[in-house]
Amino acid sequence: MRLLLDTHLLLWAAQKSTRLSAIASKLIADPGNELIFSVASLWEFAIKYAKAPAGFNVSPTELREALMQNGYSELEIGAKHVLAIAGLPALHSDPFDRILIAQSAVEGITLITSDERVAQYPGSVRKV
Predict the structure, then answer these.
(1) What is the domain partition of the chain in residue ranges?
(2) CB environment 42-60: b (16+ within 10 A), e (fewer)
(3) What is the model's pTM?
């Protein structure tokens, strides 16, 4: 299964955080799953890092390198993703979450999230 991790899950997985649910951990550890991160998650992380770098163990560059070295695939943001946002219901206003939802729909991949609001979107969005 192709899995797009939302930003929280991506960071928790990278940090091996106890905040990662057992279900999420199992999906991420399954070698049969292709793990994908969006450039949107790096963008969101970079903004937060720029505001308070002391609160993070790694830089955005180091995070990307670690993800790539651990077999994650990178999903760039394209026009088709941006245009798909216009068709999303207004259930959630966070622009980073909305682009992840749009990317998931356009690419036909499952978005996994810990966010209850994100999980309300139709399609391949799964709360873990």
Answers:
(1) 7-127
(2) bebbeeebeeeeeeeebeb
(3) 0.94
